[in-house]
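== Item description ==
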Amino acid sequence: MAISNRSGNQGNEITAEEFKRWLKKFDADRDGRISVEELRQAIRAAGGWWFCTRKAKRGVKMADKNLNGAIDDYEINNLVDFAQQYLGLSSDQQYA
């Protein structure tokens, strides 16, 4: 799976694994989970100045399957799904 901005800028395309590594850079307390505030900071750092706390809460709520209030490693794919649905990211299957 590759994730890219819907604007079609090829230089912005990243894989799901690259997205996960990028997101982990915003794990400020190094607990291995992404909190609402860490998600908000990550999206804002990527140019999403419009990304408010309410949207970050929605993203965490949709991705957080164990209901601990944060996105754990195994829930990152749920966050990718949220980003595709609500943040204008698209998934492109690449075939060899």
Residues 1-10 have pLDDT under 50 and may be disordered. The first strand starts at residue 2 and ends at 5.
